[in-house]
Amino acid sequence: MTQTLDSRALLSVNDVITAAPSSSCDAELARGPWDFDLAPGYGPGASEFDVIPTPVTRPGQLPTAYQRMSDDELHARIRAAKEKLGSDLVILGHFYQRDEVVQYADFVGDSFQLANAALTRPEASTIVFCGVHFMAETADILARPEQHVILPNLAAGCSMADMADEDSVETAWEELMEVYADEADADGLASVIPVTYMNSSAALKAFCGRNGGIVCTSSNAATVLEWAFARGRRVLFFPDQHLGRNTAKAMGVPLEQMPMWNPRKPLGGNTEADLIDAKVILWHGFCSVHKRFTVAQIDQARAQYPGCKVIVHPESPMPVVDAADASGSTDAIRKFVAAASPGDVIAIGTEINLVNRLAAENPDKTIFCLDPVICPCSTMYRIHPGYLAWTLDGLVEGEIRNEIVVADEVARDAKVALERMLAALPR
Ligand code: 13P
Ligand code: SF4
């Protein structure tokens, strides 16, 4: 087993998937990136009010010349453009980004760190975000107005972000306001505070800004819930039910007081009494990568490596988080690995690109993914070096390609909720 893991760590996820499609959770991933990218239209994971770039470069429309370039040529172009653009360009990369791309990032981090990183280079005229759509929107909201934000492939959305749209959240909010209309205001607390996970459209961040709410990331979710409970009796948490449940449970909120809100049902499928008794109302959303982790995988890892340590991301289901030795954001996982001793065996429940990178960076430890099937974040994976080369070449030629522009009124309200988030430091 160690043999397989070690050799896997030396190969990029892309190499493994293309060599053996059956090793991945989605055989579609093994199709060439240009075919694979034909599927979705503009902006999965985007706010519906985003200003759509013109002409919009739809997924699959990467110029044929770039589709045909060899890897060597693409990488030579990226290096040359980066060199030419110098400090006028900053590239941000999420921990889940594929190695072929993340190697060019000036900052690599988790969602919270990258939101801060967007603020640290005001002299750069362009931020190229090698992550997903909601991250690029956030950078656009936080950056100086003159700065441009580029998402190299507009198909890099987030399926979880798409699970809560603005209309459904507005409807839920109106229904909740009716349920709580008669509540006495003796304690000066609001009836409910909206909290959106960073993994949501700018429109939902704006909704939170307008309604006394806040954004959280997986690294500061507990601080954010404390902030919310200092201001309200309850929280409406969207879109990730698992992060909401795991965080609130660790803070002592009983499961009976965490009803689920199903946007397809009246009152989210709850009774008025449930909602009055609720402390955290959880939206019916999840991450397709993290929902794959199971307690059986943890049992299997422990059976194979007695004494191994298990850490999982809090987007994983509650029984998995409960069975693990620790849980935390991508950066917390990185720190957990760094703090482990040589010879330790660590099973990780998070996205495969990060797990493989940690394995490669820590050859003195045995590190592997709990999920035996390779399952990258298939949307982040869409940032192929071809798209990076094409957008950077555009900058060299004075053309901004695939710019992400959040409409002014959305950005104004979303910034309120994001600034509250930035002040809520991870513990
Ligand atoms: P963090 O970067 O906050 O750990 O979140 C992981 C994730 O799913 C990003 O989409
Ligand atoms: Fe969205 Fe999951 Fe990918 Fe994160 S890992 S960007 S939550 S699909």
TrEMBL record:
Top-level division of the source organism's lineage: Bacteria
InterPro entries for this protein: NadA, NadA_sf, Quinolinate_synth_A_type3
Gene3D superfamilies for the chain: NadA-like (3.40.50.10800)
SUPFAM superfamilies: NadA-like (SSF142754)
Chain's role: Catalyzes the condensation of iminoaspartate with dihydroxyacetone phosphate to form quinolinate.
HAMAP family (alphabetical): NadA_type3 (MF_00569)
Name of the protein in question: Quinolinate synthase
Gene that produces this protein: nadA
